[in-house]
Amino acid sequence: MKKNFKSFFIIFIGALLVAMGTYFFLAPNHIAAGGISGAAIIINSIFPILPIGALMMAMEVILFITGILIIGPVFGGKTIFCSFSVSGIILLLEKFFPNVRPLSNDMLVQLIFGVLICGVGMAIVFDQDASTGGTDIIAKIINKYFKISIGKCVLIADIIITVAASIVFGIDKGMYAILGVILNATLIDTVIRNLNTYKQVAIISNSGEEIKDYIVDTLDRSATIYYAKGAYNNNEREVITTVVNRKQFLKLKDYIKDIDERAFITVNEVNEVLGEGFAEIA
User: Fold this and answer.
1) Which residues form the DUF2179 domain (predicted)?
2) Given a cut of 80, is residue 61 above it in pLDDT?
3) 61-80: burial string, b at 16+ Cβ within 10 Å, e else
4) Are the C-beta atoms of residues 201 and 267 closer than 8 Å to each other?
5) CB 118 within 8 A of CB 133
6) How many domains does the chain have?
7) Cα angle vertex 45, ends 165, 169, to 5°?
8) Where residue 216 sits, what CATH number does that domain have?
9) pLDDT tens string 134-187
10) Same domain, 243 and 171
11) What are the pLDDT digits (tens) for 195-209?
12) Which helix (H) or strand (E) is 19 found in, with range?
């Protein structure tokens, strides 16, 4: 229950970022940088009477059903929560901050800020095995069957909307939209890669038993023990290896420093860890 609450809370934070990036930076400049939000911006520019948030909600239904059927109910449930969170937040922003205008005359700067905020939010959502809905569901389906990185899948799914943006808003804004989609795809892959970076740690210490207990009992991680012979004096030593996240590594390093300053530690960054205690093997 606690784990599910944490996951939904993280998804909500991602949704909040996507909504703010879209409403304050992309929408006022008519930058339709892909996604359902981009499609909603295009339609809203043609029919201003139709609110962006309401349009986003209306366009989600078919894609929701598709995502649930193809990817599964857990993904579908999280995606529904995220998508309606984004749409609902935008509706609230439209109520409390109506008629938002571009924050500056520099469209490129606003594009970059909008994509940065939205891209980080989307990456957070994807990392929780969800999506913001709309074309992101299509991206997730492509990712599932073709094993292409999620950022590239988003790029594939959004390219049609950027072409439409070029037709509706002109080639200049269309080119901005294409640039935004490319930046967004790159940022999503980068953020997800960093969110899933772990530390593979090998430790040689005279306090091996204490370190093993700390890893298992305090960090709630396992460890592998093997023995190696040193080339300098031919002594056989115990080597403790484990994989931990960044926060756990800092705790482990501080603990080892407190009990054995002469410990020998090697650290490697691991971009993906699959199996028990980590991501499932897909």
Assistant:
1) 221-275
2) no
3) eebbeebbeebeeebbebbb
4) yes
5) no
6) 2
7) 30
8) 3.30.70.120
9) 788 888 888 888 888 888 888 887 877 787 777 777 787 778 878 888 888 899
10) no
11) 888 999 999 999 999
12) helix 2-21
Q: Cβ of 163: how many Cβ atoms within 10 Å? A: 13
Residues 212 and 189 in one domain: no
Q: Exposure of 12 by Cβ count < 10 A (0-12 exposed, 13-18 middle, 19+ buried)?
A: middle
Rounded CA-CA distance 154/142 in Å is 9
Q: In what order do the strands lie in the sheet with 224-229?
A: 224-229, 236-244, 198-204, 264-270
Segment 71-112, tens digit of pLDDT: 888 888 898 899 889 888 988 998 888 888 888 888 888 888
Q: What is the Cα 217 distance to its own chain's centre?
A: 30
Task: Take residue 245 and report the two structure tokens written for it.
Answer: 């996240």
Domain span at residue 11 reads 2-195
Q: Which two tokens stand for residue 194?
A: 């960093």
Q: Are 244 and 252 in contact (CB under 8 A)?
A: yes
User: CA–CA separation, 7 vs 125, rounded Å?
Assistant: 9
pLDDT at 158: 81
Exposure string of 184-218, with b = 16+ CB inside 10 Å and e = fewer, is: bbebbbebbeeeeebbebbbbbebbeebbebbeee
Token pair, residue 94, equals 């439209």
The phi and psi torsions of 30 (rounded to 5 degrees) equal 55, 40
Share of the chain above pLDDT 90, in %: 30
φ, ψ dihedrals at 152, nearest 5°: -65, -35
User: Quick one: residue 136, left, alpha or beta (phi over 0 = left, psi -120 to 50 = alpha)?
Assistant: alpha
Cα 85 to the chain's mean position, in Å? 16
Residues 21 and 36 in one domain: yes
